[in-house]
Automatic annotation (TrEMBL):
Subcellular location: Cytoplasm
GO MF term list: 3-phosphoshikimate 1-carboxyvinyltransferase activity
Presence of keyword Cytoplasm: yes
Native organism: Rhodococcus gannanensis
Gene: aroA
Function (record text): Catalyzes the transfer of the enolpyruvyl moiety of phosphoenolpyruvate (PEP) to the 5-hydroxyl of shikimate-3-phosphate (S3P) to produce enolpyruvyl shikimate-3-phosphate and inorganic phosphate.
Superkingdom assignment: Bacteria
Keywords attached to this entry: Amino-acid biosynthesis, Aromatic amino acid biosynthesis, Cytoplasm, Transferase
Keyword Cytoplasm: yes
Similarity field: Belongs to the EPSP synthase family.
Binding partners and assembly: Monomer.
Name under which the protein is recorded: 3-phosphoshikimate 1-carboxyvinyltransferase
Enolpyruvate transferase domain location: 14-419
Residues noted as binding 3-phosphoshikimate in the record, renumbered to the chain: K26, S27, R31, S166, S167, Q168, S195, E314, H341
Length: 444
C-alpha cells in the first residue's frame, strides 16, 4: 500500500451528533436511467446520484445514442431516447453497468464493446451473457472485455439461469425485456437467489413505467419472472436517498454512543438499506423514524448479532465493522456471493479486521467475528467503496486507522471524506449550549 494514498480516519473525541443528508440511490438511479433510455419519450430523473457508477451508466447510454442532459443541477437529468447504435462502454467496477447494459446493447444496431477495470474482469458475468445468447443475442466473450453484436432488436423468450451469484443477472434481463420481441421469462435454477429486494426494486420500477411483470407471487411459479413485450412509458423519476450509503453514518452514532439523523428516509422502499434499522436495534441502538427523519442513538455497549444478510449483502461491510466493535460474538450468514462483489468481501473484511487485532474467521457462507481489542494500523480498501467506509467506522473509535485509497468511495459517494469530517464537527446538539458566564454582581 502506498503511504501517499493513506487517509487517517478521524477519531471521534466525543459521541457523534449530526444530521447527514445523503445523495440519491445508486441502484435506483441506474435503473431509472435505463428505463428512461428505453422509454417511448423523454423522461426526467430528479435527485440522481452523480458518482463513478452512475456517471459510467450515463456515459455508456450516451455512447449508445441516448441523449442525457443536465437540467439546472447535475442531479437533474433529462433523458431523451434515441436510436441505439454501436458504442464502447466502460463498466469501471460497476455491477449495475456490466450486468444491466448488455441487454440494452443487444437492442442496438451495431457492435458494442464493453470493458472495465482490471479488477472487474473477475466479477461473475458469464451467466447474463449466456442468457442473452439463449435469447438470440450475438456476443463474443464470457466476461469483461466482451462484445455484443447488436442487430437492432432481440427475439427474447424463455431462459433458465443460475443467479445464485448475483441478483443483477435477473434484473439485467428484466430491465430491457419489454423491448424484446417476445419479452422474457427468466427462471432461476440453483441455490438461493441473493438480494431479493433489488429484484423487487426492478419489478416495482418496471411497473411504474407501465411494463407488465409477473413475479413468482403472481404466477405461482417459483423463482420465475416474466416481462411482457410492450411500451416503456416515460416517467419523471424522483430518486430516494441512498440508504446503503447512509449506513456508515448511522453506524457512527452506534459506535460512539451519539445520535445521527438522516432526513428524507422513505416510509416504504425496496432499498436493502432500510433493513439496517432492525440490525441496529438488535445490536442495542435506539432507532426512530418520525416525519421522514431517521434517528439512531447509540447504546453504551454494542451487542454482537447473529444475522442472515443474504437479502441485504450490500450492508455487510458496515455490519462487520460494527460487529468488530461489539461486546459479544457475531455471525454474519448467507453471504457467500460477496466473494464476487467489488472484491472478495469476506476475505477482505477478515484480513483487514484481523490486521487491526480483531478475531474474524471466514465461514463457508459468511463471517464469524469475536470481540477483541483493536489497535491502529493500515486498512486496505481493495478498490471497494464499502471497505473504505467500514475502515472509517472502526477508525472513529480505534486510534490510528489509516484507510488506503479512501477516494474509492467515489464509486457511489464522492466527497465521502468531507461528509465524514463534517459529521464530526461539533454542532449545537453535540455541545449543549453553556449558560453565559454571569458578570460579577449581575442579576438574572
Ligand atoms: O441490483 C442492484 O442494484 C444491486 C444488487 C446487489 O447485487 P448482488 O445481488 O450481486 O449482491 C447489490 O449488492 C448491489 O450493490 C446492487
Ligand atoms: C456490490 C455492490 O456494487 P455493484 O453494483 O458494483 O455490484 C455494492 O455497491 O455494494
Amino acid at each position: 500500500m502506498d503511504a501517499v494514498s493513506l487517509w487517517r480516519a478521524p477519531l471521534a473525541e466525543s459521541p457523534v451528533h449530526a444530521t447527514v443528508t445523503l445523495p440519491g440511490s445508486k441502484s435506483i438511479t441506474n435503473r431509472a436511467l435505463i428505463l428512461a433510455a428505453l422509454a417511448s419519450g423523454p423522461s426526467t430523473v430528479t435527485g440522481a446520484l452523480r458518482s463513478r457508477d452512475t456517471d459510467l451508466m450515463i456515459a455508456g447510454l450516451r455512447s449508445l445514442g441516448v441523449g442525457i442532459t443536465v437540467v439546472d443541477s447535475p442531479t437533474t437529468l433529462r433523458v431523451t431516447p434515441g436510436t441505439l447504435h454501436s458504442a464502447t462502454v466502460d463498466c469501471g467496477l460497476a455491477g449495475t453497468v456490466m450486468r444491466f447494459l448488455p441487454s440494452v446493447a443487444a437492442l442496438a444496431d451495431g457492435t458494442v464493446a464493453f470493458d472495465g477495470d482490471e479488477q472487474a474482469r473477475t466479477r461473475p458475468l458469464a451467466t447474463v451473457l449466456d442468457a442473452l445468447r439463449g435469447l438470440g443475442a450475438d456476443i463474443d466473450g464470457a466476461g469483461l472485455p466482451f462484445t455484443v453484436h447488436g442487430r437492432g432488436g432481440l427475439r427474447g423468450g424463455t431462459v433458465t439461469i443460475d443467479a445464485s451469484g448475483s441478483s443483477q443477472f435477473v434484473s439485467g434481463l428484466l430491465l430491457s425485456a419489454a423491448r424484446f420481441d417476445e419479452g422474457v421469462t427468466v427462471r432461476h435454477d440453483g441455490s438461493s437467489l441473493p438480494s431479493m429486494p433489488h429484484i423487487d426494486m426492478t419489478v416495482e420500477m418496471l411497473r411504474d413505467a407501465g411494463v407488465t411483470v409477473l413475479t413468482p407471487a403472481d404466477s405461482g411459479e417459483m423463482d420465475t419472472w416474466k416481462v411482457l413485450p410492450g411500451t416503456v412509458t416515460p416517467v419523471d423519476w424522483v430518486i430516494e436517498p441512498d440508504l446503503s450509503n447512509a449506513t456508515p453514518f448511522l453506524a457512527a452514532a452506534a459506535v460512539t454512543g451519539g445520535t445521527v439523523s438522516v432526513p428524507l428516509w422513505p416510509s416504504s422502499t425496496t432499498q436493502p438499506g432500510d433493513a439496517f434499522r432492525g440490525i441496529l436495534t438488535d445490536m442495542g441502538a435506539t432507532v426512530s423514524l418520525q416525519d421522514s427523519l431517521l434517528t439512531v442513538a447509540g447504546p453504551e455497549k454494542l451487542c454482537g448479532i447473529d444475522v442472515d444478510l443474504h437479502d441485504i449483502g450490500e450492508l455487510t461491510p458496515t455490519v462487520a465493522a460494527l460487529a468488530a466493535l461489539a461486546d459479544g460474538p457475531s455471525v454474519l450468514r448467507g453471504i457467500a456471493h460477496l466473494r464476487g462483489h467489488e472484491t472478495d468481501r469476506l476475505a477482505a473484511l477478515s484480513t483487514e479486521i484481523n490486521r487491526l487485532g480483531g478475531s474474524v474467521t471466514e465461514t463457508e457462507d459468511g463471517l464469524r467475528i469475536d470481540p477483541a481489542p483493536l489497535h491502529g494500523g493500515t486498512w486496505g480498501s481493495y478498490a471497494d467503496h464499502r471497505m473504505a467506509t467500514a475502515g472509517a467506522i472502526i477508525g472513529l473509535v480505534v486510534d490510528g486507522v489509516d484507510v488506503d485509497d479512501v477516494g474509492t468511495t467515489a464509486k457511489t459517494l464522492p466527497g465521502f471524506e468531507n461528509m465524514w469530517t463534517a459529521m464530526l464537527e461539533p454542532t449545537e446538539t453535540s455541545e449543549p449550549a453553556q449558560p453565559e458566564a454571569a458578570e460579577p454582581g449581575a442579576r438574572s
